[in-house]
Design a protein that fits this description.
The protein is mostly beta strands and about 650 residues long. It contains no helices and 48 strands.
Length: about 650
């Protein structure tokens, strides 16, 4: 049976299209017709059809919206089909809300993007009136295909729709069907679903256009009967990649309206999710005590707001949710994660199972360690030594429950050993692929391995390729043969820390007899007063010593040449050092008064080049020059006329002429 009524100014008016006297069907939906301009649908219409009944044609005669209540009976199927027929179709759209759950289960695109030959949305009433959408075990939801009601958002201004038997809660943070609107690789989430490489999964998404900052969003399954199960189990796959992800909580409840009971809390464990292509991980839980009962499950995504992304990088994703009878004879290890890491060692752990021992497989790789060495261990942890520093390894585990009885392999985790000391001579030009330039000056970008930064959200050294604007910074890096990267100071907040810094890796001076530090500076700004740039050297196990500082401009234009700084280092071959570049601002500004490029620690030349060349005086036909000697006794000076390509070279035995 079906019933359709229209809502005008919150009062109910029975429409002439009522097909039966059963006004309150076992499933109730609210269809809302919307017009973005506010002058009605201009002759366009939509058909609403329940299987076995003639379609009903509905429209919006004037105004910006009208809502119709529609009731259908158990087992009946209802379809919503755009008919068009009028003008200004790009102003028209509609939504369908499940009045039992209060959730919008479908949001259409605009009329000019809708088909007139096939329905946009179809759903079946599976509600009993008291137990909505009751299913039986085994139950599987793969979140794939729009026929199941899983429709991704068409833009960042809507949240698409989910299956009508599922429920979601949230405003600015919401569970949506993938792909995420406005997706970009640096905002986390998986690159594909768990099963076929498509976008058949659901995840929590932060709307950039809602001012309310929800910290949680909930996703609730339909009721599932376990009447025919003796040893029921629930399982799903998850992917937790994002700087703002706090945790994923998983709970269970029964149809007696009791409280939610926590089953587990999952965290973005180290090693499991290092990039969007990292494999999904599965968890499963015995729910034997609920055999014969009817249950529902709740996923609660929890995010934080502490990173540079301010809560946006929080895409908690799940796939292939299932409830079934447990038939495994040897459980697969789950929650494989990194417990500790060093320069040459690592420890991984996992949830213990009923297995008598475990087989661990590992390899120096970033993919599954298939064919790599294995080791048998009796406990749910594994220690490995003699690893290479600053290197990637993958691990996976399976249980051994008896002769010929082994579990599936776990999903692999990826680890990266800590950085050891680099052997000098050492240099960094910021051109390798691990230095990632961000999209805007409100983001720091990605630093290279083994570098540290002071970590402030609003004041930092930024990976840069172009200047902030025409008033500050260089127009290119010092050696623009590669992508042209350099590091620049940047401020986006109003309360500045005392200084902000970046620190190089540790550098062993074993092979240097006369070490020196070199780096190139560009310091230009029309509008920002210069603060102080300080360079310090820290010894391993020792103190920190300032070796250089400056607070003035070095260039007069953006295109002026970078200047090299050469700092002798009074350290021996047994020392290991790292260099700290620190900036203390004089005033708050989001311009870039200082930029640094091409840092190196190497042996000084046996014949050091002169430095600090300066002009003492100028006449109409002469110039007085001076420079620091660097230790040499004789010099060559070359000069040329502006716009000439011919150099004149003279030899000197003094540091002035």
């Amino acid at each position: 049976m079906k019933t359709i009524t229209s809502l005008f100014n919150k009062s109910i008016l029975f429409a002439s299209i009522v097909a039966s006297l059963n006004m309150f069907g076992q499933c109730q939906y609210e269809l809302t017709l919307l017009d973005s301009y506010g002058d009605g649908w201009n002759g366009n219409s939509i058909n609403v059809q329940v299987a076995g009944f003639a379609p009903s044609s509905l429209t919006l005669n004037n105004g910006s919206s009208i809502s119709y209540n529609i009731g259908i009976g158990l087992g009946e199927t209802i379809s919503f089909s755009w008919q068009g027929g009028g003008s200004f179709q790009d102003e028209c759209s509609y939504t369908v809300k499940d009045l039992f759950t209060g959730s919008v289960i479908y949001t259409s695109p605009t009329g000019n993007q809708m088909s007139t030959s096939t329905p946009q949305f179809t759903t079946q009433c599976s509600s009993t009136g008291t137990t909505p959408c009751l299913f039986t075990s085994p139950y599987l939801e793969s979140f794939s295909g729009s026929n199941g009601g899983w429709v991704p958002p068409s833009s960042q201004f809507n949240t698409g729709s989910i299956n009508s038997c599922w429920n979601r809660n949230g405003v600015s943070y919401q569970w949506v069907k993938a792909p995420f609107p406005g997706s970009s690789p640096n905002l986390g989430g998986p690159s594909a679903d768990n099963t076929n490489g498509g976008q058949g999964f659901i995840g929590s998404w932060s709307s950039p256009f809602v001012s309310t900052l929800d910290s949680i969003t909930e996703l609730i399954t339909p009721y599932i009967s376990l009447d025919d199960d003796q040893t029921p189990q629930v399982a799903f796959w998850y992917h937790l990649l994002g700087e703002d992800i706090s945790r994923l909580e998983f709970s269970i409840s029964t149809d007696t309206a009791g409280p939610w009971t926590a089953i587990d809390t999952l965290y973005p464990n180290t090693g499991a999710f290092v990039n969007p292509a990292s494999p999904w991980h599965q968890v499963y839980y015995d729910i034997f005590s609920y055999a014969g009962d009817t249950v529902s499950f709740k996923f609660t995504a929890v995010r934080e707001f502490g990173s540079l992304y301010s809560g946006i990088d929080s895409r908690i994703s799940i796939d292939d949710f299932s409830v079934y009878e447990d038939t495994m004879t040897c459980d697969k290890p789950i929650k494989v994660e990194l417990a500790s890491i060093g320069v040459s060692s690592a420890q991984i752990t996992w949830e213990p199972t009923s297995a008598s021992s475990y087989e661990v497989q590992w390899g120096q790789s970033t993919t599954a360690p298939i064919g790599s060495p294995t080791t048998i261990v009796s406990a749910n942890q594994f220690n490995l030594t003699s690893l290479a520093p600053n290197s990637s390894y993958t691990f996976r585990v399976r249980g051994i429950c008896g002769t010929g009885n082994v579990s599936e392999w776990s999903e692999y985790v990826t680890i990266e050993t800590d950085c050891g000391a680099f052997l000098a001579p050492w240099n960094e030009d910021f051109e390798s692929s691990d230095w990632v330039v961000p999209f805007s000056w409100f983001d720091q970008g990605d630093f290279g391995d083994c570098f540290l930064d002071s970590g402030n959200l609003s004041f930092y050294w930024r990976v840069s390729r172009t200047p902030y604007n025409q008033d500050a910074g260089p127009n290119t890096d010092h050696t623009p043969s590669g992508p042209g990267n350099y590091l620049a100071t940047n401020a986006t907040g109003t309360t500045t820390p005392a200084n902000w810094s970046f620190t190089t890796p540790w550098i062993a001076l074993d092979s240097l007899t006369n070490p020196e530090l070199k780096f190139w500076i560009h310091a230009f700004s029309k509008v920002t007063a210069f603060g102080t740039l300080t360079t310090k050297v820290q010894t391993l196990g020792g103190g920190i010593t300032a070796v250089f500082d400056t607070s003035g401009a070095f260039q007069g234009t953006q295109s002026a040449a970078w200047k090299e700084m050469v700092v002798p280092l009074n350290y021996g071959v047994t020392d290991t050092i790292r260099v700290i570049f620190s900036y203390k601002p004089k005033v708050l500004s989001n311009r870039q008064p200082f930029s640094v490029d091409d840092i190196s620690v190497e042996s000084a030349s046996s014949c050091p080049r002169p430095k600090y060349l300066r002009v003492e005086s100028v006449t109409s036909n002469s110039v007085d020059l001076r420079w620091s000697t660097g230790g040499a006794l004789n010099y060559q000076l070359r000069y040329k006329k502006d716009n000439s390509s011919v150099w004149t070279v003279i030899s000197l035995n003094t540091n002035q002429t």
